[in-house]
Q: What sequence folds into this?
């Protein structure tokens, strides 16, 4: 049985005594549950709050059979979570809009897994179709750790990237100078856990088992996040065509990026750029051209594997990038960011090695 | 686009002109949808009614993406269905209790896929925990075709067996004289379509994908149907221990039956009894001992494959019997029974060969 | 037990007496086995030969557990097969190069499922890297039935299309006038049966289960067949970028085609073109824009479902087209072609409705 | 890139400086690869040798795409591995028979994952059909940690239990006094990784995908190990009827044990016995009766979840016990034993929480 950490004063950064007390809000979803799984084995953080308003009072193990002994979901108590050393928000963005300002006011570090603060306000408005209620604070620091770790280290609020943008941007950012604007097609495939824990007609097991289906094109919200990420961390490559698919597996995400190369770019330059970006990264592995990454190679981990192959006939590059949508695509990266924010070793409690086979 | 058959007077048995007009009631469930799939290609039956009260007005293809062009579910119109040549009831037993008496009164042949009329009244009451509202007519003719085809041929109401009882009884009935009473353990595994089309927390795709779990033991309702089937068609072997499991596949059912042999029974007698029972059956195949049947070998078909192996150390036989839970375990057998009731070739519109791989 | 048809003189086209005697050569692969499954229930064809040189003498059921009672694979006897009413070649193209000339000389109709005669000689040489040994007879009539049925009807040798080209061309051909040359990206996903029956390290069950992986890019041989098909049946759209992926399912193929629209093309024109092409086709269903086809909706069938959605931001169309790689992508279409060649009803023994769920 | 530990003198138990140097022999199989995955993140052990004779020279990542950066498999160098602090043998038992005596002579601690030393010699001979070449040293200490940890702590050679025996014995051992001898039926289901990494006809992905099949009954070798384990750690319950099945998933193992209760045993006693045995165990969780464990709840972990339900009608108990066949069923338990042998915290580098969903 997992015993929640007791209430105690917030630990200031660098305090040598005791573990960091953290809370998970929105723990009844898959992102929150994965955080609980990872944090249960973290050597420097203790989970003090496991909150989920809609499921308050329900045993955690009833929704997540791997999480035995974690008691019941608690209702969200803002004062309580504001007193913690860090709060992970794994809620819909609507709840984040309520909680982030209060936690910011309290000075409580936040890793927000929702889309609330990931993109510039105009992008949010365009892709979500609603006003942004907190425009002065958007975007927050974007927590694509390998590309923003310095900003993450000093941030109070980190917007944790979406799953599709994480895989896509990790594959594309090293190459933005080599790609022709306006030519980017992202054909992405995700496991069904990306669609959340709530039972739904189209997520019914026999309905999906053994089947693959596209969805959401051409206006999936992650399109805007990918474009914003490219522009802010790399280069504006114009509108991106983004088409996601549901895979008949619980976990795993593959982004296959098709793009034209700028004139004169050679295949070697593509590989060199990937290797140069990630040679010293513990969570991103670059494969040799012609070797393609398996989604399950990073399942359950915070790893990302990237490969690129150039087609001289069409002058296109095909980038394949795999992550676990709940790992590097959600909870894993959130923990990676939290490690950075706490000044801990970035990989603490995380692995780059997936549970394969 | 599938065009429903027009309204016309009921065809009397043997009438040589025109196809039989049939209706599916409860077509919004998987059993009903599978009937629609099979009947769409049947050379002697036309589907005239596709009814489902709760989903009336919804396009069939919205629930079943394979069934394009079948229009919308209709509400149940008792007068209309009573005028048909045959009605397949794929509803819960509560609805069958309402409809069967009316259809019987109208003289309309019925294949009832629900549990309403499968077992003697006392068994129904014991295992369902409610009174039987139509005790004078229960049980109806039990449509385990290979074992009851003569009764089926002259029946007006046929109770189509449950999926677990079908696989279990087909494996056991040839052997009842060889098995020791009180020793029967049925460990069964079913695809998730057996749990129905309705979205539910425990049938959520990511929740089940890649996992197997037992459920329902020790009081699953099919226990009573298995015991009744043994007693009525074979021999009372005492209480059966029945444990079902959910498999992470949409279709397929395997019943593994463990039982002690009566004293002095030899392995050869087991195989001989199986072969003797099924040598002339088109839908049941007996495999050699040591060859075990694959569930997918009968997927999408009306086939059943059975194998038995004797363990001299424990004096037990292990019978493995596979069907498609929606095929021979539901819609396939219903159509097989309908063929018999209409005096058609028993295998019309059906196959024993599964869609493998 | 399936009894092979006896030897008798070849039936001339249109002969009213008796079923057509056909043979399957290369029956130990998945394409051949699927033909055997389909033909076993065909009302107008009898399988007289089930041949597979490398597996001659092995029981069919040992390789394909759904095919019980089909005896052993026979060695290839050219005289015997040349005497049949039709031969299905489901061999590698090397064997087709040996057999097709002999069968052509004997006047025996052939549906060749290999790549031997699908494309112009120069395309074959480019994409296979070997000389074409029979250049005067290549290409044969390309059996993409919906687009070539008149030529098929009078052909002696029909080259049955590959699985990826079938799904891709069925989705693209109605739209070729609307698409911008040089802009075509095909991101395709196939079940593992497309890789054949032979055990291999990278097709080992635990290795692939739950994983998706790209392969073969940028030089998969089907690229050439897609380009040739576009040029010959539609319009030369320049080099196509083709990237296939392995899905962790046995069956099912989805081609997601991304292409720019010619200037001024409206979304309505795309849908109109699809509907116009397929409104009267029994095996191709056009879905409404925004509804995406499920691979399993056509599993085990000869159906194809196509959908297209236009993205005004990028002026691209995304076409999604699903087939069963062993159905419309191989054996199903082969049988459809054979029906046409025999002058039978095109859909005989086939269904457009997949085994879903 | 994972850097192998340098050669240095063996660390004596309790030495406070440096990590333990360990080797994996037979690392090209799934058990060995899983050890590599677990050890890569272990805080107190360094992998110094990754050996596999048949695959020496092949990159580890070529066989296991999750294990990037681990270099090539090395050939087995007995002197080198004998100098290590511990050797994990993940080889077939034939290789263990060669290596264990040499390592024992060198005083090198061994965790042997093969069947070589698990059972008394007569049981080994009976179930493997060959002589035991090292009868004076068999059985070694049986490493079912929860039941033998004191013996493990002082052992030099530990025989790591098989996957089926682990799940079965963990479920049964608390209850042996309550079960009727001669009544035990074990119906077990395993993921395909239990069958090893080598490609094989019956383990071909499309062949198994979506299918379940029994195998090996009635003479699977693990039967003898289960019987020996019951007798040595619990109580001789007579011959056990053991029937394994292959599940269409890579990982996960469920043992469903059916047994009669001794006269007068009440349901409460069953639950009490389970809870009493495991209340203080970190890796074994007892669920409430009526809640059944999911295999995926322990996937990728060293956890085991057990549940039991009593059927008063048949006086039988149904015990369901799940593990990851590569975790608690192989590499996880091996590491747990190694932790105990080194005097480390038993759970170091391990988790009881599976990667679900």
A:
């Amino acid at each position: 049985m997992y015993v929640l950490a007791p209430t105690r004063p917030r630990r200031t950064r660098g305090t040598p005594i005791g573990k960091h007390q953290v809370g998970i809000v929105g723990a009844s979803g898959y992102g929150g549950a994965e955080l609980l799984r990872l944090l249960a084995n973290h050597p420097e953080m203790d989970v003090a709050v496991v909150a989920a308003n809609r499921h308050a009072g329900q045993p955690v193990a009833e929704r997540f059979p791997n999480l035995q002994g974690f008691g019941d979901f608690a209702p969200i108590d803002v004062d309580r979570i504001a007193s913690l050393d860090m709060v992970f928000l794994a809620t819909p963005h609507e709840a984040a809009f309520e909680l982030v300002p209060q936690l910011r006011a309290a000075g409580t570090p936040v890793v927000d897994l929702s889309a609330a603060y990931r993109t510039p306000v105009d992008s949010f408005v365009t892709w979500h179709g609603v006003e942004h209620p907190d425009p002065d604070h958007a975007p927050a620091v974007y927590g694509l750790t390998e590309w923003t770790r310095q900003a993450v280290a000093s941030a109070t609020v980190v917007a944790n990237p979406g799953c599709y943008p994480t895989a896509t941007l990790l594959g594309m950012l090293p190459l933005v100078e080599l790609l022709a604007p306006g030519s980017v097609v992202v054909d992405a495939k995700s496991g069904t856990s990306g669609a959340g824990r709530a039972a739904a007609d189209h997520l019914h097991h026999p309905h999906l088992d053994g089947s693959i289906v596209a969805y959401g094109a051409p206006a999936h919200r992650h399109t805007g996040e990918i474009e914003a990420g490219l522009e802010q961390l790399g280069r504006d490559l114009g509108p991106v065509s983004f088409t996601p698919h549901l895979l008949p597996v619980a976990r795993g995400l593959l982004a296959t990026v098709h793009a034209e190369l700028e004139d004169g770019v050679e295949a070697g330059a593509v590989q060199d750029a990937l290797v140069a970006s990630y040679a010293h990264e513990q969570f991103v592995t670059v494969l040799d051209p012609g070797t393609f990454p398996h989604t399950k190679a990073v399942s359950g981990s915070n790893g990302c594997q990237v490969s690129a192959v150039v087609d001289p006939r069409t002058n296109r590059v095909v980038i394949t990038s795999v992550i676990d949508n709940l790992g590097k695509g959600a909870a894993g990266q959130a923990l990676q960011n939290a490690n950075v924010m706490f000044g801990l070793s970035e990989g603490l409690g995380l692995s780059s090695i997936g549970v394969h086979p």
Observations:
- Chain A has a mean pLDDT of 96.
- The longest strand of chain A covers residues 253-260.
- The two ends of chain A are 29 Å apart (CA to CA).
